[in-house]
TrEMBL record:
InterPro entries: FAD-bd_oxidored_4_C, FAD-bd_PCMH, FAD-bd_PCMH-like_sf, FAD-bd_PCMH_sub2, FAD-linked_Oxase-like_C, Oxid_FAD_bind_N. This is FAD-binding PCMH-type domain-containing protein. The keyword Oxidoreductase applies. Its cofactor is FAD. Pfam families: FAD-oxidase_C, FAD_binding_4. Signal peptide: none annotated. One of its GO terms (molecular function) is FAD binding. Residues 40-269 form the FAD-binding PCMH-type domain.
Length: 417
């Protein structure tokens, strides 16, 4: 899409007239928004920081009239170039970052897309013991909207699933610059939507038609693994009594609409947790051990390999946190158990260790029940990529093939190959 200088100037002026938020077309801002956490760089046409849904509607209307692409952005922590493009970028993180409503009894929160995940959790009353479930490593800077775009999940996906398991309803701005609400529809409500002779009716008819006419392919070829996040979630529309178009928005990487509000579930947090750090002298053996480990119903299983252990030992900030590593393992698995009493945790850790020893899985099994010590372990896991990138010199790991999802039962074989 080639736009000349006058077109761009007119676009900027139109946006400045229509928008309450910020409009940035200066080269410094465009350079800032040319990158995200990926290796890709593309300069945007301009940047809008909307203050509210009306700003999003106006931006969409202006972009549509000018015939230019438009792209939403949250924290910009995507690793595969999702938030860089020659487009009008809408950054939701500066102003549209509020908690709008919380219902503790029914356990849900209505939020704006630019709220950072950790900020949402900090906003919730501690005594209610609830939190937003998905916890990607970037939770201190990644936003709800970005998590919806990427269908993010984190260390606790075993218990809380992916973002698609946590989103109840979505308010969004569509490409025709109108607002829409997506939520669960009963068969009767869906029938009514299907008869509507407007853009919304079209969406329901077209999307359901795509899902139904490809149902055989979808059912046989969509991988049946819990952490699959690639592609549109067309499988969610098949064989369900309630249809929810929000399921299709989750994981759509900003290609379908701009989310302006989301109602998300809150999950109950466990009273107590305990970790077992299982040490392995072989990486593939550690990966293969996840299958027997999962039989113990842990709340998280995460791997730290020898390269990350080495980097952490050399990092002045993190080396003092590495007291939980025994010897020179090729990998450790952090296995977390959750429960309502300390004795429940203690029993689970004991039977877990006995079972692993019986199967000769690992060479050392360190239990950690102290809360602060557990946080230190998680902080290293969360800092993983940053620590790897801190390797001195020009030879750095390059993150560009991300989120390969493998059935845990084949993980050992996958890593060995
Ligand atoms: C070190 C590191 C560790 C990571 N660890 C994890 C991990 O453990 N698990 C995981 O899932 N991911 C992980 N990621 C990837 C990324 O951090 C997450 O996917 C995160 O949830 C993205 O949030 P964000 O706000 O940065 O989104 P962005 O990168 O800003 O956007 C992500 C996508 O969402 C779209 N989007 C943003 N806002 C909206 C909106 N309002 N409406 C519609 N679409 C929108 C964007 O267009 C884009 O396609 C990691 C990344 C890094 C750099």
């Amino acid at each position: 899409m080639d736009k000349n200088h006058n077109d761009i100037f007119a676009l900027e002026s139109d946006l400045k007239r229509a928008i309450q938020g910020d409009v940035r077309f200066d080269s410094f801002s465009k350079t800032l928004y040319s990158t995200d956490a990926s290796i890709y760089q593309m300069e945007p046409i301009g940047v809008v920081l909307p203050r509210d849904t009306d700003d999003v509607l106006a931006s969409m209307e202006i972009a549509k009239s000018a015939g230019i692409p438009i792209m939403p952005r949250g924290g910009g922590t995507s690793l595969a170039g999702q938030t860089v493009n020659h487009a009008l970028v809408l950054d939701f993180s500066k102003y549209m970052n509020r908690v709008l409503e919380v219902n503790y009894e029914e356990r849900w929160a209505r939020v704006q897309p630019g709220i950072v995940l950790d900020d949402l959790n900090r906003n919730l009353l501690e005594e209610k013991r609830v939190r937003y479930g998905p916890d990607p490593s970037t939770s201190n800077r990644a936003c709800i909207g970005g998590g919806i775009g990427n269908n993010s999940c984190g260390a606790h996906s075993l218990v809380y699933g992916k973002t698609s398991d946590q989103v109840l309803e979505i308010e969004a701005v569509l490409s025709n610059a109108t607002k829409i609400n997506f939520g669960p529809l009963s068969p009767g409500e869906l029938e009514k939507k299907l008869t509507k002779q407007d853009f919304e009716g079209n969406i329901y008819r077209e999307v359901l038609n795509i899902a139904q006419s490809n149902s055989t392919e979808i059912e046989s070829n969509y991988p049946k693994i819990s952490r699959r996040i690639s592609g549109y979630n067309l499988d969610s529309l098949l064989g369900n009594s309630a249809t929810n178009m929000a399921d299709i928005v989750v994981g759509s990487e900003g290609t379908l609409c701009m989310v302006t509000e989301a109602t998300v579930k809150l999950v109950k947090t466990p009273r107590y947790t305990g970790l077992c750090i299982v040490h392995f002298s072989d990486l593939a053996v550690a990966c293969a051990a996840t299958t027997p480990i999962l039989k113990h119903d842990p709340s998280a299983v995460e791997l730290i390999d020898s390269m990350l252990i080495e980097r952490t030992r050399q990092s002045p900030a993190f080396s003092r946190l590495m007291k939980f590593i025994d010897g020179q393992p090729k990998a450790v698995l952090i296995v977390e158990f959750s429960g309502e009493t300390p004795s429940e945790i203690s029993k689970r850790l004991t039977s877990f260790k006995v079972d692993l020893q019986r199967q000769s899985l690992g060479y050392a099994w360190l239990n950690i029940t102290d809360k602060i010590e557990q946080q230190k372990v998680w902080s290293i896991r969360k800092a993983g990529l940053g620590l790897l990138m801190s390797i001195r010199g020009n030879n750095k790991p390059i993150p560009f093939v991300e989120d390969t999802a493998v059935d845990p039962s084949r993980l050992g074989e996958f890593v060995r190959r």
